[in-house]
Design brief:
The chain has 313 residues and is α+β, with helices and mostly antiparallel strands. It folds into three domains: 15-84, Orthogonal Bundle (Arc Repressor Mutant, subunit A), CATH 1.10.10; 103-169 and 278-304, Periplasmic binding protein-like II (D-Maltodextrin-Binding Protein, domain 2), CATH 3.40.190.10; 173-275, D-Maltodextrin-Binding Protein, domain 2. It has helices at 15-27, 30-37, 41-55, 71-94, 111-128, 180-186, 235-243, 253-261, 290-304; strands spanning 60-62, 67-69, 103-109, 132-138, 152-156, 165-170, 173-178, 202-203, 212-217, 220-225, 231-232, 249-252, 266-267, 273-275, 278-282. Strands 4-3-5-15-6 form a five-stranded mixed sheet, covered by helices on one side. Helix 1 (15-27) packs across helix 3 (41-55).
Length: 313
């Protein structure tokens, strides 16, 4: 982002100039930009020229009917988005989150949770609040909300970063299960210790120690080192391998619901479970951001209630 220092660049322009530039960058046309703004192409060209002079760069390659953003223009566009988000955040903070939700809402989550529950819920949220621009990224890693400019990270498991605010979305647990064919071939383990003698389908989860299962049972929390011939970072792949009889898996009840109900997977060691509540992590409290508050409340309603996207236990 450009600093307000005349030794670096003369920032003698208005935020409206940046907004005109961003719209022109998206439209790739001064005429189309002018039409949307209800002004003339000459006005658009003048405001962008003022911005270019202030920054000391050329923002567009100009052609007769179309303009394209330069490399410098791409950098200005990225910085402008940060500026507008900062202005929105400042306004919400000053207003104590009482404003109607608007602006860009950036959400991250894991692949299967995102595809099966978060994405359809956010589709409904977008219809309810048309001033929100929603971005959803499905990732298989722990994200840095501050450096990556993310509003909410929806995750399975508690939020343990001390600088983040945790919001519980819905309850859930992980259970042990296997296909009938596997249990017929290898037998059913009678204790947690016997898991080490079985083929276990290990999920390389975004926040779980690889190959170590910690479960809560009659004697409290116990852990066991498990191994197997097959592992993946994708829960859908693990579940499919489990259905094919390749081993024992530990996954959330909402992820396994249909397979358990259909008898394709059989619960084992039912006295042992693993907490796997759905949480949302944010950098701000709900009272300070209308868009975060609305999104968290909506996800709690959709995933934790009786709606079509609720987690099936």
């Amino acid at each position: 982002m450009w600093l307000y220092d005349s030794r670096i660049v003369n920032l003698n322009f208005q935020l409206d100039d940046l907004r005109v530039f961003c719209l022109a960058a998206r439209k790739a046309s001064f005429a189309a930009t002018a039409t949307e703004l209800g002004t003339s192409p000459a006005y658009v060209s003048k405001r962008i020229a003022i911005l270019e002079k202030s920054l000391g760069v050329t923002l567009f390659h100009r052609a007769a009917r179309r303009v394209t953003v330069t490399d410098d223009g791409e950098r200005v566009y990225a910085s402008a988005q940060q500026i507008f988000q900062g202005v929105d955040h400042m306004g919400e903070t000053v207003a104590g989150g009482r404003l109607d939700p608007h602006g860009t809402l950036r959400v991250t989550t894991s692949f299967r949770l995102g595809r099966k529950h978060i994405a359809p819920a956010l589709s409904l949220l977008a219809k309810r609040y048309p001033a929100l621009d929603i971005t959803l990224d499905a990732v298989d890693r722990r994200v840095d909300l501050v450096s990556e400019n993310i509003d909410l990270d929806i995750r399975v498991g508690e939020v343990d970063e001390p600088h983040l605010v945790a919001h519980r979305i819905a309850p859930s647990t992980r259970v042990l299960c296997a296909a009938p064919g596997y249990l017929e071939r290898r037998g059913t383990p009678g204790s947690m210790a016997e898991l080490s003698q079985h083929d276990c389908l290990v999920l390389r989860d975004r926040n779980q120690a690889f190959g170590v299962w910690r479960l809560t049972g009659p004697n409290g929390v116990e852990k066991i080192k498990v191994t197997g011939r097959m592992s993946s970072n994708n829960s859908e792949i693990i579940r499919g391998w489990g259905n094919d009889g390749h081993g024992i898996l530990l996954q959330t009840t909402w992820d396994l619901h249909d397979d358990l109900a259909g008898g394709r997977l059989i619960p084992i060691l039912s006295a042992y479970t693993q907490p796997a509540d759905i949480w949302a992590a944010s950098t701000v409290r709900l009272s300070h951001s209308a868009k975060v508050r609305v999104c968290v409340g909506f996800l709690q309603e959709q995933l934790g209630g009786e709606g079509p996207f609720a987690l099936k236990q």
